[in-house]
């Protein structure tokens, strides 16, 4: 399979992107990578590889660029050329750690929605205490949503959980302010009723406080709420690790304790590390589009590449098309 990757997107590009690509090429013999970016900036980190092709691009979509205009106006940017490769069938999937809004706008404009999908959703796997993780969507592709949009998110998330995460009958939960059926606003009440009528393994409402306890395999909500929950989880995880570090460095006694607990602390950090779970996939498009975290290191890029390759390998997009398409 052929993957198109934006070599210039993200806080640590191009170094982290190139290093992640090289790691992935070593571990995944079934992938070929088309790396888009400025040749001179990429060159210091590159190594020759028979499954790696570098495509020179003069422009870069910056984080502060207007999403709606960036990809259209910067036609020679690494992001635009990457999306163009998928649009024209020269690549099976694409990945960027760059401007999220521009990637979503470019994905819609160049690759297009699956027929029958009203609004694409941004989804990612978040960590749980037991290490299994759960898929959550929408995480910000659409701030507003109608009940039918969220029901489609649940259907697409269910397919991903089955095909990519290997869960035979995923538990699908609706994020709400309580577990009772009548809880929530008009949107969540309407979604609850519609999800009950589907063939999904719908377990009802789930609360934000229970998300990390593996209460569900797929959790759906509108993009406004989902984005706030995502950032709350990321911020809380970072704060906990920072407080633990301060506590263990407070005295000689606690430093010895930290040394004795080194492996346990490393495992805890691993459970909370987004880089092990890949990126956020934009569900509902005609091909897999993966958004890696803006602060991705090489390991996070590696995981996002693994995620994109698995989506291609298991025909996730085609299954969504078959399930949702009116024809």
Automatic annotation (TrEMBL):
Annotated protein name in UniProt: Phosphate acyltransferase
Database matches in Pfam families: FA_synthesis
UniProt keyword Lipid biosynthesis present: yes
Keyword Acyltransferase: yes
Lineage, broadest ranks: Bacteria, Bacillati, Bacillota, Bacilli, Bacillales
SUPFAM superfamilies in the record: Isocitrate/Isopropylmalate dehydrogenase-like
Assigned protein family: Belongs to the PlsX family.
Broad class of where this protein is predominantly found: cytoplasm
Pathway entry: Lipid metabolism; phospholipid metabolism
Function: Catalyzes the reversible formation of acyl-phosphate (acyl-PO(4)) from acyl-[acyl-carrier-protein] (acyl-ACP). This enzyme utilizes acyl-ACP as fatty acyl donor, but not acyl-CoA.
A GO cellular component entry from the record: cytoplasm
Biological process terms in GO annotation: fatty acid biosynthetic process; phospholipid biosynthetic process
The enzyme's E.C. designation: 2.3.1.274
Molecular function via GO: phosphate:acyl-[acyl carrier protein] acyltransferase activity
Source species of the chain: Lysinibacillus telephonicus
Subcellular localization, as worded in the UniProt entry: Cytoplasm
Catalytic reaction annotation: a fatty acyl-[ACP] + phosphate = an acyl phosphate + holo-[ACP]
């Amino acid at each position: 399979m052929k993957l198109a990757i934006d070599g210039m997107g993200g806080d640590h590009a191009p170094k982290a992107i190139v290093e992640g690509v090289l790691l992935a090429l070593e571990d995944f013999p079934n992938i070929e990578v088309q790396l888009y970016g400025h040749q001179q900036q990429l060159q210091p980190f590159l190594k020759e590889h028979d499954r790696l092709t570098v495509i020179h691009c003069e422009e870069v979509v910056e984080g502060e660029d207007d999403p709606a205009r960036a990809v259209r106006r910067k036609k020679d940017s690494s992001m635009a050329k990457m999306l163009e490769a998928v649009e024209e069938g020269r690549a099976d999937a694409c990945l960027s750690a760059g401007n999220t809004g521009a990637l979503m706008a470019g994905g819609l404009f160049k690759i297009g929605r699956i027929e029958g999908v009203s609004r694409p959703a941004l989804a990612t796997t978040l960590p749980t205490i037991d290490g299994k993780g759960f898929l959550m969507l929408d995480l910000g592709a659409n701030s507003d949503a109608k009940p039918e949009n969220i029901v489609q998110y649940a259907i697409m998330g269910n397919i991903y959980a089955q095909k990519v995460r290997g869960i035979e009958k995923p538990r699908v939960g609706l994020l709400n302010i309580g577990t009772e059926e009548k809880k929530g606003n008009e949107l969540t009440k309407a979604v609850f009723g519609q999800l009950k009528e589907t063939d999904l393994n719908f377990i009802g409402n789930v609360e934000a406080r229970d998300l990390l306890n593996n209460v569900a395999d797929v959790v759906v909500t509108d993009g406004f709420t989902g984005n706030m929950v995502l950032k709350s989880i990321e911020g809380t995880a970072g704060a906990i690790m920072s407080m633990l570090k301060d506590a263990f460095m407070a005295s000689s006694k606690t430093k010895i304790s930290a040394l004795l607990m080194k492996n346990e602390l490393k495992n805890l950090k691993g459970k909370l590390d987004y880089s092990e779970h890949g990126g956020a996939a934009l569900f509902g498009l005609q091909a897999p589009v993966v958004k890696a975290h803006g602060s991705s290191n090489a390991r996070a890029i590696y995981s996002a590449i693994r995620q994109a390759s698995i989506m291609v390998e298991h025909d996730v997009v085609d299954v969504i098309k078959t399930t949702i398409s009116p024809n």
